[in-house]
Amino acid sequence: MAQDIQFAWSLYHGYENYKDKHLSNRRFKYSNILPLIHHLKNKNIFTVKKAGESEEGRDIYLISIGSGDKKIFCWSQMHGDEPTATASLFDIFNFFLTENHYTEFKQFLLDKTTIYFMPMVNPDGAELFQRRNIFEIDLNRDAAQKQSPEAKILYSVFEEIKPHFGFNLHDQDRAYAAGLSGKSAAISFLAPPFDYAKTKNESRTKSMKLISEQYNLLSEFIPGHISKYQDDFEPRAFGDSFAKSDSSIVLIESGGWCDDREKEFLRKINFISLLTSFKSIAEESYLTEKIDTYESIPNNEKLMMDFIIRNITVRKFQTKYVVDLGINYEEININNNHSFYYKAKIEDIGDLSVYSGYKELDATGLSLVLGKTYETEFNSVSEIKSVGSSSLLQKGITNLKLNDTEIENKYSPVLFNIILNNKERKEELKEEAVPNFILCDGRKFKYAVINGFLINASSVGKKVSNALIFK
Ligand SMILES: [Zn+2]
Fold first, then answer.
1. Span from the CA of 334 to the centroid of ligand 1 (angstroms)
2. Ligand 1 mean position to 39 CA, how many Å?
3. Distance from the alpha carbon of residue 455 to the mean position of ligand 1, in angstroms
């Protein structure tokens, strides 16, 4: 184990040498990975084959390396908006292509294993940055029917390879925590069941042992942030369906990590996780692990929110409450799905003591005042920019009126929300509402929350994420 930990740390420290810089934002598309795949065709150690075509005619590739008996198959992004592991696969290709001090290790792997990769199983979904394929089919519920071409391709390639190990690579909601720890589930693992009784046969036991080993290894980097994915049998899912064969299936879900919205850190963890797994499979070191470790991994619990403000004093009908407020930021795709803006909503109000926030603020002693709209209507954005933000915030203003019929964006170019064309708007404190309010200490303005993002009175002008445009 000590030697494996050392190996994992050396990957951790050397990662920047392998990270594929072409994939720098997680809304990358098929057109971004295609030249990278073509590049591999010219390299001797890789075999690149077209496996089939997506519904919209994008080629889906199978890339392989090595000539050993132990077969490993990794597929990623069957959900179009779950790209983290796809990027890691290209990092792994670079690891094999780059001259480095792992020559001996790489040769050992290539002799012992044959590793197959299918990056971006759902390129049409990735194009729209959506979960489902172009027919609105969730590919991971199409393993039994296999109506979609993407599901057919994945299934037939799996049947042809008959891998000893299969890695099913996904992203999951940032809202999951590792058990009741209050820590985000950065990585979730599952040895998927193949029946409702959740029987542990030999191949599933092997998955559990490998995950046990991974749990110990990754705890070096993300201690307390590893969880076990829900293990209910789902006959329509690929992992569960493949687990029926003699293959050992490992589900890896990249979840949430503080200040890592683009999941670049989790991409690095995937890189380490997969390479150390390959090593373990080649050496069969996982066989000495106990499944008790797997069983003891905390379950995924939906207990994380993006931002929690605790102990706010709220007044309604002369009554005073002290409540916590949970806020989540939804990403709305823009620019042909290459970018996004945030739309915040109030997730919950009340006692949120069981939840943890990626960011938290203790508002003890502060009262909430709902955001107001400034009376004067502006005629241009530059006119707005000439007014001091601080003075408006002091007055409890979160929204400004703008007379402009041209604006098409739905996110504001300034600190404040913008209300177009004299529309009426009244802020509310309720579930699903956009959080727009001021936090005051007595009469003194301390914080503003506009579209869920915190603005500190003492640092107005510091860049915060976007406010909204209400039409
Ligand atoms: Zn998924």
1. 22
2. 27
3. 34
Which of 113, 122, 54 lies closest to 279, judged by CA? 113
Compute the distance from residue 249 Cα to the ligand 1 centre, in Å: 15
Which residues lie near ion ligand 1 (Cβ < 5 Å)? 79, 82, 170
Ligand 1 centroid distance, CA of 223 (Å): 23
The CA 172 to ligand 1 mean position distance, Å, reads: 6
Q: Regarding beta strands 300-302 and 176-178, do their DSSP bridges make them parallel or antiparallel, or are they unpaired?
A: antiparallel
225 CA → ligand 1 middle, Å: 19
Residues 6+ apart with CB under 8 A from 419: 373, 399, 400, 401, 402, 425, 469, 470
pLDDT by residue for the chain (471 residues), tens only, comes to 889 999 999 999 999 999 999 999 999 999 999 999 999 999 999 999 999 999 999 999 999 999 999 999 999 999 999 999 999 999 999 999 999 999 999 999 999 999 999 999 999 999 999 999 999 999 999 999 999 999 999 999 999 999 999 999 999 999 999 999 999 999 999 999 999 999 999 999 999 999 999 999 999 999 999 999 999 999 999 999 999 999 999 999 999 999 999 999 999 999 999 999 999 999 999 999 999 999 999 999 999 999 999 999 999 888 999 999 999 999 999 988 899 999 999 999 999 999 999 999 999 999 999 999 999 999 999 999 888 899 999 999 999 999 988 888 899 999 999 999 878 899 999 999 999 999 999 989 999 999 999 999 888 878 889 999 998
301: Cβ contacts below 8 Å, ≥ 6 apart = 176, 177, 178, 179, 180, 227
DSSP state of 468: B
Distance 151 CA to ligand 1 centre (A): 14
DSSP conformational letter for 284: T
Across 97-220, the runs of DSSP E, i.e. the strands, are 113-118, 165-171, 176-178, 187-190
Ligand 1 center from residue 82 Cα (angstroms):
6
Q: If you measure from the C-alpha of residue 390 to the centroid of ligand 1, how many angstroms do you get, rounded to a whole number?
A: 44
Tokens of 183: 């820590």
Task: Give 131 Cα–ligand 1 centroid separation in angstroms.
Answer: 7
Distance from the alpha carbon of residue 165 to the mean position of ligand 1, in angstroms: 19
Distance 340 CA to ligand 1 centre (A): 20
CA 78 – ligand 1 centroid, Å: 7
Of the candidates 89, 116, 120, 93, which has an alpha carbon nearest to the alpha carbon of residue 27?
A: 120
Q: Please compute, for residue 378, the number of CA atoms within 13 A of its CA located in the half-sphere on the CB side.
A: 20
User: Among all chains, which residue has been given the structure tokens 């194009």?
Assistant: 127
Report the alpha-carbon distance of residue 229 to residue 251 in Å, rounded: 8
Whether the model pTM is above 0.85: yes
